[in-house]
Specification:
Blueprint (H helix, E strand, L loop, with lengths): L9 H14 L6 H14 L4 H4 E3 L3 H10 L4 E3 L2 H13 L5 E3 L13 H12 L4 E4 L3 H14 L5 E4 L7 H10 L4 E4 L6 H21 L1
Parallel strand pairs: 2-3, 2-4, 4-5, 5-6
Antiparallel strand pairs: 1-6
Helix pairs in contact: 1-2, 2-9, 4-9, 5-9, 6-7, 7-8
Length: 209
């Protein structure tokens, strides 16, 4: 896209204005709120204003990685599909769904876990976006702790009841750039919304230079 072209549809901008009025005062900084607002827009759930967490370097590292066009690895195809449109409008990073990288699962693992580890071994500097599979997030965290490597960003937003809280706790313990959703909430649309908000922020900082 060229300078001056809007990334967001006018209806999205109108929705953002409504969200701004309903949220009022909050404790997030400008970039954190931009991400939270897009998640609220996607879910119509204002609780995300208090559920999103950001490590100190998460947004800066995510923006820098997007500008460097590092690969973006999602756990499942739904997250990949959710970021494709914004990617084509901005940096066109390669997007890879981990589950699609494993025709069969390794023994004792799911296909998503297997594919996630293959992707990390190949792209340790990548951005990792998990919205569905807590086992994949757990496997990723274990591999990072074992190898002491630091990806560009991890977005941890799996949803549900089995291994979800454990996977988010594992992510919280890692010294890596990370954005996560506290508790059991999350999901593929939430994970995609976080990444899409980062794409807009990265594109806007690029255009402002």
């Amino acid at each position: 896209m060229g300078k001056g072209e809007r990334l967001n549809h006018p209806i999205v901008e109108e929705s953002f204005a409504i969200i701004d009025r309903e949220v009022g005062n909050h404790s997030l900084n400008a970039w954190e709120y931009t991400i939270a607002r897009r998640v609220i827009h996607t879910t119509a759930d204002f609780e995300y204003l208090n559920l999103l967490r950001f490590s100190s370097e998460a947004i800066d590292s995510g923006i820098a990685s997007l500008k460097e066009r590092v690969p973006i690895v999602t756990d499942v195809g739904m997250v990949k599909q959710g970021i494709t449109t914004m990617l084509t409008k901005t940096f066109n990073n390669r997007a890879i769904a981990a589950v699609e990288q494993a025709a069969v699962a390794d023994i004792g693992k799911t296909r998503t876990q297997t594919g996630m580890l293959k992707c990390f071994d190949k792209y340790p500097q990548g951005i990792y976006v998990i919205g569905n599979a807590p086992t994949a997030l757990l496997a990723l965290c274990d591999r990072i702790a074992e190898l002491n490597l630091k990806p560009g960003l991890i977005i941890g937003a799996p949803v549900g009841f089995v291994s979800v809280l454990e996977s988010k706790q594992a992510l919280k313990r890692l010294n890596v750039p990370k954005i996560w959703v506290e508790g059991r909430k999350g999901g593929s649309p939430v994970a995609a919304a976080i990444l899409n908000a980062l794409l807009v922020l990265a594109w806007e900082t690029l255009e402002s230079n």
